[in-house]
């Protein structure tokens, strides 16, 4: 390969031109600009080349060429990811799979759908709806995000407490290895001989293989869903109520919490008659047959009442249920309405730590002099604190980053993890140094080498290098907000 | 991770010794599944000392257990709090351990409706082939930090390392259950199951054998009651139903029992994992069906090729369970690409090949 970037670019474009039509290769700055970032817009890089293949043969050829030339490849779906997993490599090829957008088969007897990787999450459920079936994982971006991206991130959603993550709802992934070899992980049967490679490919953020086709499991649509909205006068009681629901053997279809500040923000946005006096609001949903829902709602109401709910309302009909949810679903845009910018965190903690975690976040608001509003997937302990800041103010941005890192580290200390569903990407590389030891990180690198010995698929994401972690450790002390970082601060 | 725990420290020592001497280890829990997979070689690495429930929070739906803990002990502790391992891991004999359950990756009758062992693993601590103690995943259900290494250990038969401790998602025991029986041949049974699959019915397990289809319903009382009315059939008495599903789960049913006489007569037991909608397979011997049609057992005197080709033809695979002649290998062969990844992963976790060498496939 030539030394200069321009020559390298020409060289790669020439090689790719042999297998792709002219219009499927982008390399001018203005043409590649839309690919500079995913939904984490703070991190941007201009890709050397963007390719838009239309067939699996083209994908295989692109990978073979890049493998031969030693060029990194970053696969990209809808670009809705929140952690920079699809951020381009400056000397690499961004492999856009947007044209793989066909639903190939809905099998109503097997309850499966075979779709190309670029099909939108919601489009699968729409296509299955006439048969009374749907695809359960529902990340909030489901209207736009693609199933290939869901595979990369092991996406969750509001309903995964009851219905599982992407991993639990995908049977087979078809795709290509870094060297262009075709491969299939999983099966239309319920298991495969040998190691369960599907489970490590799902959630691998495009670093182990490129996905082109997915077989998902469909499930019968519940006949009915009803939702309880419960208010609590303090956060501890709300946190304990969440634990009590589960401890009583109830697995709600959704169990979500909003704090007072978040409730105020969304009420102004959607006017859903939320209880603005409540310290926390819980949304607790039941779905199933009419009889099942009736039975479960009664049990949920009893538990929530016993747990000290100040006010309980059960949705009368579908319109009211959707109204209850409207605020929760609009938490992010509502936050955009009350602040120039916000940073969304995504850690998970054990459910019993919800109240202590909220208290810690309140203290951090004072420490970093920034506001934070909170929505939680309370049922599975997945937090989405939204730190409000103004990116135009460099100091606010800096404090916001420290605030975010503090939330992640506190989550790890409480027995949780730095990312529940948004992925590590580039955003949480530093936090990975906190959660994993050097040996564990090296084991991740070894796994990567088993699939991609040359290290060409989405390099630099997910696993921080030893050097990066060493630098982060130092920076951590130097950039601490307090003059005496060794002193305990409640 | 620190190794202050004496049982854990002894394991690390043993692995370090094995690495120095280059001698393989045969990881042993309760030795209840030695018939499964390829022949074990190496010095026994006993896991039973590494025992005990490390933490159990019923409201978190998660239990963290050390690998040598008896499965029976874990299940008893869960039952006390009205919870269970929903995937019903088979207990082929008393004495099986939690580590063995994960390493074998086998699930019972409810697998098609609730998921597998793998689906319920949240995290684990692994002793790898460099004698390093590593933790992956955690104790929370939603966790995408790093590759999902812990789930890769389910069904790996110990070839990637020693599972030391594992966190498992548990669920409440169903409020109501009922078992319905229908007289029908295999084709009619499969047809019914395929039709029911797309309806919101609380079907939790099925079995078909000897001209009878049994269907276990589980869930809210109202849902189970409504499904009983809708499906019809003969309702099995609760005690008989419990005994029936135990015999299917633990292979104490006569179909699965292999004594010396059966082995001597050249009979074998095969497990065929196929798409649930596969029509009746014409196999020599007797069949027993589970998992809505996705798991088909065959007790036969036919050769391996007969079973392997039948499974492959419909997109599945066949594993040899019981049988004297194991020359055809326990598991269906892998494609060249997948075998390459398997070799790479062995290299990544156990570069000196000291853990259960050859137990899953030759060369791994």
Keywords:
heterodimer, A: 490 residues, alpha+beta, Uridine Diphospho-n-acetylenolpyruvylglucosamine Reductase, domain 2, Uridine Diphospho-n-acetylenolpyruvylglucosamine Reductase, domain 3, Alpha-Beta Plaits, 4 domains, 7-stranded antiparallel β-sheet, 18 helices, 18 strands, 39% helix, globular, disordered C terminus, B: 364 residues, 8-stranded antiparallel β-sheet, 5-stranded antiparallel β-sheet, 11 helices
Structure summary:
The complex is a heterodimer of chains A (490) and B (364). By secondary structure, chain A is an alpha+beta fold. Chain A has helices at residues 5-17, 29-32, 56-69, 121-128, 147-153, 160-163, 166-169, 197-201, 235-247, 260-270, 290-306, 318-329, 331-338, 354-368, 394-413, 429-435, 438-451, 466-478, and strands at residues 25-26, 49-51, 73-76, 93-96, 103-107, 112-116, 133-134, 170-176, 182-186, 210-217, 219-220, 224-232, 254-259, 280-288, 311-314, 341-344, 372-377, 382-389.
Structure characterization notes:
The complex is a heterodimer of chains A (490) and B (364). With 490 residues, chain A is α+β, with helices and mostly antiparallel strands. Chain A contains 18 helices and 18 strands. Chain A folds into four domains: 92 residues, Uridine Diphospho-n-acetylenolpyruvylglucosamine Reductase, domain 2, CATH 3.30.43; 118 residues, Uridine Diphospho-n-acetylenolpyruvylglucosamine Reductase, domain 3 (2-Layer Sandwich); 110 residues, Alpha-Beta Plaits, CATH 3.30.70; 145 residues, Alpha-Beta Plaits (2-Layer Sandwich). In chain A, strands 15-12-14-13-17-18-16 form a seven-stranded antiparallel beta sheet, with helices on both faces. Chain A is globular and about 70 Å long. Chain A starts with a helix and ends in a 12-residue tail after the last helix. The C terminus of chain A is likely disordered. By secondary structure, chain B is α+β, with helices and mostly antiparallel strands. Chain B folds into three domains: 174 residues, Uridine Diphospho-n-acetylenolpyruvylglucosamine Reductase, domain 3 (2-Layer Sandwich), CATH 3.30.465.10; 74 residues, Alpha-Beta Plaits (2-Layer Sandwich); 67 residues, Alpha-Beta Plaits, CATH 3.30.70. Helix content of chain B is 29%, strand content 25%. In chain B, the strands form four sheets. Chain B has an eight-stranded antiparallel beta sheet with strand order 13-10-12-11-15-16-14-17, sandwiched between helices. Chain B starts with 5 loop residues before the first helix and ends in a 15-residue tail after the last helix. Classes of the chains: A alpha+beta (490), B alpha+beta (364). At the A-B interface, helix 8, helix 9, helix 11 and helix 17 of A face strand 7, helix 5, strand 9, helix 6 and helix 7 of B.
